[in-house]
Design brief:
The protein is α/β, with parallel strands linked by helices and 200 residues long. It has a 7-stranded mixed sheet, sandwiched between helices. Helix 4 packs across helix 5. The longest helix is centred in the N-terminal third of the chain and has 15 residues.
Length: 200
């Protein structure tokens, strides 16, 4: 008998109450689109997946609308899944049909952990070609999903920074600080001013 790849309820409960996805933000959507349209990514076809809560549905719909307006890009399918299910197999098969260049996910962490465990066990899905909204940048997600299940998955935070899952950790890239609106000179001019103040 083959053991189920899914996480038993008792183990999931040990991680406590996971946050419910909140409404996505414009900065988050822009950052996510930026990841998928960056130079050399060559992503033109995506499958968008989401859990069934209102915030995830809305985030997925917003991404689909934005993706279709970027020009020459296609959404092959939209797939949803419940937070609890017998196996998640049907959703996993639909999610990986069509061989997209990438997958985009807006979901609650526990349902996505279960879905990703099924994907890893039963399909040829690649987490390194998967991009998520802020709700999936939760540090408990890699542990819930299991070793290497989500290796390489990336996404955006609510404020437009980026996160990556690497070797079981969620790491965040701090956004670059805004440019100083006071200093408008060249590097040489700025250096001269600093030198002058030091000598004065």
């Amino acid at each position: 008998m083959t053991l189920s790849p899914l996480l038993p309820h008792s183990e999931a409960a040990a991680y406590g109450d996971l946050p419910t996805p909140g409404p996505h933000r414009d900065a988050e959507l822009r950052a996510l689109l930026g990841l998928l349209t960056a130079p050399r990514t060559r992503i033109s076809t995506v499958v968008v997946g989401h859990s069934r809560d209102a915030a995830s549905r809305s985030a997925a719909a917003a991404f689909i609308e934005a993706w279709r307006t970027t020009g020459g890009r296609t959404v092959l399918a939209g797939v949803d899944w419940p937070e609890t299910a017998a196996s998640w197999l049907r959703a996993a098969v639909r999610f990986t049909t069509g061989e997209p260049d990438a997958w985009v996910v807006a979901a609650a962490p526990l349902g996505w952990a279960q879905m990703s465990r099924r994907l890893r066990h039963s399909t040829h899905w690649d987490p390194a070609r998967t991009y998520g909204f802020a709700s999936l940048g939760d540090s408990r997600l890699p542990a819930l999903a299991g070793p290497a299940t989500l290796q390489g998955m990336r996404g955006a935070t609510a404020d437009g920074a980026l996160w990556t899952i690497d070797r079981g950790w969620v790491t965040h890239q701090v956004p670059a600080p805004p440019a100083d609106p006071v200093s408008r000179g060249t590097l040489e001019e700025d250096s001269a001013r600093i030198s002058g103040r030091a000598n004065g």
